[in-house]
Specification:
The chain has one domain. The protein is built from 5 helices and 2 strands, in the order ααββααα. It has a two-stranded antiparallel ribbon with strand order 1-2. β1 and β2 form a beta hairpin. The longest helix has 23 residues. The protein starts with a helix and ends in a 6-residue tail after the last helix.
Length: 160
């Protein structure tokens, strides 16, 4: 009988501990699948970084157009549904880094287009679906944007 009580007490303690640790864990981040640390190569990294910079500004994805001011002061028109991709960049610094990596043979134009058409488009769609409850997503985007800027700086490119 004493062994049964001990076993029951241990089991109850374990269940309580598991329940507490499950509550203490943060909810899964809806955009975590787009973590640049998990990127397969430079094409995915550049796309994730450029799209992250775009989304970190909390754009209105229901707009019929957006204007973005470039480094030299001129404005470019971004169009839906993704606003970026298809040869269009949000941050010119990532575009300059793309050309640098292209010249070094570290990625191809086809790889970049593939990344824009897959991981980039998926990130935009996930952001659209989760935006109403994306408080943690905004922190994720801000952290990822910071990491991406540091990564670009290591490659000799400053993102403004």
């Amino acid at each position: 009988m004493l062994n049964l009580l001990k076993t029951t007490a241990v089991a109850a303690g374990l269940a309580l501990g598991l329940a507490w640790s499950a509550q203490a864990q943060p909810a899964p981040e809806p955009l975590a699948a787009f973590d640049v640390h998990q990127a397969r190569g430079w094409a995915d990294r550049l796309v994730l970084c450029d799209y992250t910079a775009f989304l970190a500004g909390q754009p209105d994805l229901s707009a019929n157009r957006m204007w973005v001011r470039r480094d030299d002061g001129h404005s470019d028109l971004l169009l839906p549904p993704e606003f970026v991709g298809g040869g269009q960049w949000y941050k010119e610094g990532y575009q300059r880094l793309y050309f640098k990596l292209l010249r070094r043979g570290e990625l191809t134009h086809a790889q970049l287009r593939q990344a824009q058409d897959s991981v980039g488009r998926d990130l935009i769609e996930s952001y659209r679906r989760h935006r109403p409850g994306l408080a943690g997503g905004s922190r994720f985007l801000a952290r990822q944007d910071h990491y991406c800027r540091d990564m670009a700086r290591e490659q000799g490119e400053i993102i403004t």
